[in-house]
Automatic annotation (TrEMBL):
Domain of life: Bacteria
Protein name: HAD superfamily hydrolase (TIGR01509 family)/beta-phosphoglucomutase family hydrolase
Family: Belongs to the HAD-like hydrolase superfamily. CbbY/CbbZ/Gph/YieH family.
Keyword hit for Magnesium: yes
InterPro entries on file: Beta-PGM-like, HAD-like_sf, HAD-SF_hydro_IA, HAD_sf, PGP-like_dom2
Molecular function via GO: hydrolase activity; metal ion binding
Cofactor: Mg(2+)
Organism: Ornithinimicrobium humiphilum
PANTHER family listed in its UniProt record: 6-PHOSPHOGLUCONATE PHOSPHATASE (PTHR46193), HEXITOL PHOSPHATASE B (PTHR46193:SF18)
Keywords: Carbohydrate metabolism, Hydrolase, Magnesium, Metal-binding
KW Heme (keyword) present: no
A Pfam family this chain is assigned to: Hydrolase
Length: 246
């Protein structure tokens, strides 16, 4: 299937439409650096510094608490899971996830966010062709990011982490959230394109039988995205309009 043939495009948000992935990365780094520094020397855990590769391997694209669990597991750190109501100070998986969310929103409110110009060009082109669009994000901050970036009025369908929890949908790399967005739009998955910058999100698109999976390489690596199932990989969505896809 070619880009121009799809009836609907399902976009991830952070790193695809907006550079909020960078804000998320900073918030995660602040959180996990503090966690590692608080561990005693005799904890037996891997206390080596948190890096961007930790983000891409364990956190990128996953629901927040799953990302916390994956990173802690990689370092041999065992904490109780807790509940989503845990305060940010709690030493639980959910508490750490909630603490990261506080940091993220503080950064977003202080600095704001603007959509990628190339992504806006694509949204304008799709609107002109009457193609349906939706946002599918693991983050519960999706509506906040869309409002802050000025994109909220472009999307009637937004499937975020809160919707996924309410509907009992499995997170990426499972295809459930993307399939649910296609269902809300009334478009068969084989007529939809999925646009993702995370390996887990690309795997979700490939697993769900979607007509086209576009990988956006914002740092994870083009080869990684292709191996995960991307049909096309770009570094900027405007390449889809300019015929520079690869």
């Amino acid at each position: 299937m070619e880009w121009v043939d799809v009836d609907a495009v399902l976009f991830d948000l952070d790193g695809v439409l907006t550079p909020t992935a960078e804000v998320h990365m900073r918030a995660w780094k602040e959180l996990f650096t503090s966690v590692l520094e608080s561990l005693p020397d005799d904890s037996g855990a891997d206390r080596s510094p948190y890096t961007d590769q930790d983000y891409f391997r364990h956190v990128d694209g996953r629901p927040r608490y799953e990302g916390v669990e994956a990173f802690l597991r990689s370092r041999g750190i065992d904490l109780p899971h807790g509940t989503p109501d845990d305060p940010p100070e709690a030493q639980t998986v959910c508490g750490l996830g909630n603490r990261k969310n506080v940091v993220f929103n503080e950064l977003l409110d202080a600095e704001g966010i603007e959509a990628y110009p190339g992504s806006v060009r694509v949204l304008d082109d799709l609107a002109g062709r009457g193609t349906e669009v939706a946002v599918v994000t693991s983050s519960r901050n999706g509506p906040h990011v869309l409002r802050t970036s000025g994109l909220a009025d472009r999307f009637e369908v937004v499937v975020d982490g809160g919707v996924a929890a309410e509907k009992g949908l499995r997170g990426k790399p499972e295809p459930d959230t993307y399939a649910y967005a296609a269902e809300l739009l009334g478009v068969p998955v084989e007529r939809c394109a999925v646009v993702e910058d995370a390996e887990s999100g690309v795997r979700a698109g490939a697993a769900g039988g979607f007509g086209l999976v576009v990988g956006v390489d914002r740092g994870v690596g083009a080869d990684v995205l292709r191996e995960a199932g991307a049909d096309v990989v770009v570094t900027d969505l405007a390449e889809l309009l300019d015929g520079q896809t690869g």
